[in-house]
Specification:
The complex is a heterodimer of chains A (216) and B (388).
Chain A lengths: L4 E6 L2 H12 L5 H4 L6 E3 L5 E6 L1 H10 L4 E5 H7 L4 E5 L5 E8 L11 E5 L2 H11 L3 E5 L6 H5 L4 E6 L3 H5 L2 E10 L1 E5 L1 H6 L1 H21 L1
Parallel strand pairs in A: 1-3, 1-4, 7-8, 7-9
Antiparallel strand pairs in A: 2-3, 4-11, 5-11, 6-9, 6-10
Chain B lengths: L16 H19 L3 E2 L5 E3 H6 L11 E3 L5 E4 L4 H9 L9 E10 L11 E10 L4 H17 L5 E7 H9 L5 H12 L3 H8 L6 H8 L4 E2 L2 H10 L3 H15 L6 E4 L12 E7 L7 E5 L13 E7 H5 L11 E5 L4 H10 L5 E3 L5 H10 L4 E6 L2 E6 L1
Parallel strand pairs in B: 1-5, 7-9, 13-14, 13-15
Antiparallel strand pairs in B: 2-4, 3-4, 5-6, 6-12, 7-10, 8-9, 10-11, 11-12, 15-16
Classes of the chains: A alpha/beta (216), B alpha+beta (388).
Chain lengths: 216, 388
């Protein structure tokens, strides 16, 4: 019955936070902490194998069912979409999507079609579509702040944590687009085929999250 | 000029064992459907775009593959089999007595997202029972869904049943705008526990709220019906599902049937029982269906209906069929064709072929290249078996 499940973790900061969470749940995550050259990391005291992947790949793996569970940021979920269950807000990796423009500029005060640079064209499109506003969207892969500085765009839609980078580059956030944090996602078929195991994993996560919340 | 010699994205050439797997599933399903009294319908691969708008099936327009015909009308490669069949039932079959049991074995087309590994050609084999409402029809459909997956050779699978009215009843007890209702529905469909809880935060005193918050958890064995009743109070849709289960269980189908009351996809389209099939080894549902009593009416004839489609390639992905290997090559002389064909036809398909070569040494080379173990030489003077 207790078949091993696979979980895909987003590499980097979310990975460390996921490992902290799992360890608080009592899972031995030493294989993930020292991954070496291995790509699949079986946890010794829980029927779970972890793989590390870039954020959009976490969704791809879960959606195709090659991983049963995944930890990924809401930013990636909003951008990439897909069909899976989004079962828990894990509370870490908190930040927000915001629209930022050069300080002092009047973004809305013109009839000219505005141009927005973003790493997240889908999120940007959905945000302005909701407002009924036409915008040109330019996809930028690296530091998005550069685009308005160079005069490519009138604003950016990007993840804002402290706002320090924006400020340093003469930009200011003028509107929130969405709140973002890490989510636990589940493949739809796995949920049905491994209900007991997955719900038990979710509720152990939930317990830790609840006690964290109580402790503030 | 840069000629494309690859297949377009989302499409693929299927070879050998892949074809055998797909055909095995299709043949098993078709045989079952025919045995249960269903007749085949083949509808065009290209239909007017309007048909799928009119059907009320919320397929996003970007997921349809479109063509503009000479007169400027928009046409689509059939994105779904049910709407065309409803059209047929309301028009061509108008004079026939109901119910009509129809089946199809077709490909539907979707224009998928680039690079997501999805297929834009989806083989679907399914049934529609048109002009029958009520429990007997629903029971027949769920039982047929179980038998269909069993006939395909699946062993570990189950059919998960829900009811479109359960969510609607609960949601109607709250005072929600259509937008809020749609948001809530999508949270429940996505089992997005967190967002759903946030949304229900400020109406906790309403008992319907508690039930809605639990809805994404209400899946599993028949016990979820009791759990749901404890939360929501007596409810016609729950009674109906319990009766349905009773009938199915007494007919021996109980072990294959589970429930998911959070099955709330396409809520404007489905009007009653909805179900999906899940199988060990498939990362997506292998079967999907439900009751859609308003669809046929869209095309001008009132007829309640229910049906389901099996996703043939999802099912065949759970099976493993190996293509037969060539074992025997027949080298036959002048005037020996009839005898050669007689031997060939007696072999298992795919294990034997005729050699087109003039000389025996070329035949021996051919047999070696293709990995056959033996060559049969048929001459007027007699037959010889040679090892390769």
């Amino acid at each position: 019955m207790s078949e091993r499940l696979k979980i895909a973790l987003t590499k980097g900061r979310l990975q460390d936070k996921s490992v902290e969470l799992f360890e608080e749940m009592g899972l031995d995550c030493s294989p993930v902490r020292s991954p070496g050259r291995r790509l699949i990391h079986p946890l010794p005291n829980y029927p779970l194998d972890a793989v590390l992947a870039k954020a959009p790949d976490v969704i791809t793996y879960v959606q195709h069912g090659v991983c049963d569970l995944g930890v990924v940021g809401k930013d990636t979920i909003l951008e990439k979409g897909g069909s899976f269950y989004e079962v828990l807000d894990l509370g870490f990796g908190r930040c927000r999507f915001a629209l930022a423009v050069p300080k002092g500029s009047d973004f809305y005060g013109t009839y000219k079609t505005r141009r927005i640079a973003s790493k997240y064209p889908e999120v940007t499109r959905a945000f302005f579509e909701k407002k009924g506003m036409d915008v040109d969207i330019v996809k930028i892969e690296g530091s998005v702040e550069l685009a308005p500085i160079l005069g490519l765009s009138d604003g950016i839609v990007d993840i804002v944590e402290t706002g320090a980078t924006l400020k340093e580059n003469g930009l200011e956030p003028i509107e929130d687009v969405a709140q973002v944090s890490a989510r636990l996602i589940v493949n739809t078929a796995s949920m049905k085929l491994h209900k007991q195991q997955i719900l038990e994993f979710i509720s152990r996560c939930q317990q830790v999250l609840d006690s964290r919340r109580r402790e503030g | 000029m840069n000629l494309h010699i690859t297949t377009p994205e989302g499409t693929q050439d299927r070879l050998f064992s892949e074809c055998l797997e797909r055909r095995q599933v299709q043949n098993a399903l078709v045989a079952l459907f025919r045995r249960r009294g269903f007749s085949e319908v083949i509808t065009p691969e290209v239909e007017y775009y309007d048909l799928f708008v009119q059907s009320g099936n919320p397929l996003p327009q970007e997921s349809m593959l479109k063509i503009i015909d000479r007169s400027g009308k928009i046409m689509v490669m059939r994105p779904d089999c049910t709407a065309p069949i409803a059209r047929v039932a309301a028009t061509k079959l108008k004079g026939l007595a109901l119910p009509q049991r129809l089946y199809y074995d077709e490909t539907v087309f979707r224009s998928g997202n680039a690079h997501d590994g999805g297929s834009s050609e989806i083989a679907q084999c399914g049934v529609e029972l048109i002009g029958a409402s009520g429990k007997k029809a629903d029971v027949e459909m769920v039982a047929l869904a179980v038998d269909a997956l069993r006939a395909c050779g699946l062993e570990e699978f189950h059919i998960e049943v829900g009811h479109a009215d359960f969510f609607r009843t609960l949601a109607s007890r709250l005072d929600l705008s259509p937008e809020e209702m749609e948001r809530m529905r999508s949270f429940i469909e996505g089992k997005n526990y967190a967002a759903l809880n946030d949304m229900l935060e400020n109406c906790r005193e309403n008992p319907a709220c508690e039930a809605l918050a639990r809805l994404p958890y209400l899946f599993g064995g028949v016990e979820v019906l009791r759990e749901a009743e404890a939360l929501a109070g007596p409810c016609r849709s729950l009674d109906y599902l319990a009766q349905l289960y009773g009938e199915l269980d007494s007919a021996g189908y109980g072990q294959f049937v589970r429930f998911d009351l959070g099955l709330v996809h396409q809520i404007d389209y489905y009007t009653g029982v909805v179900f999906r099939g899940y199988a060990q080894g498939a990362g997506r549902p292998v079967l999907s269906g439900g009751r859609y009593d308003k669809l046929v009416e869209q095309f001008g004839r009132r007829a309640e209906a229910t049906g389901f489609a099996v996703y043939v390639d999802e099912v065949s992905g759970c099976l493993s069929v190996t293509a037969p290997r060539l074992e025997l090559v027949i080298h036959y002389g002048q005037g020996m064709l009839a005898q050669a064909l007689e031997v060939l036809d007696a072999q298992a398909p795919g294990t034997c072929e005729l050699s087109p070569c003039r000389t025996l040494s070329s035949t021996m080379n051919l047999a070696q290249e293709k990995g056959a173990a033996r060559v049969l030489v048929l001459e007027k003077t007699g037959e010889r078996w040679l090892e390769v």
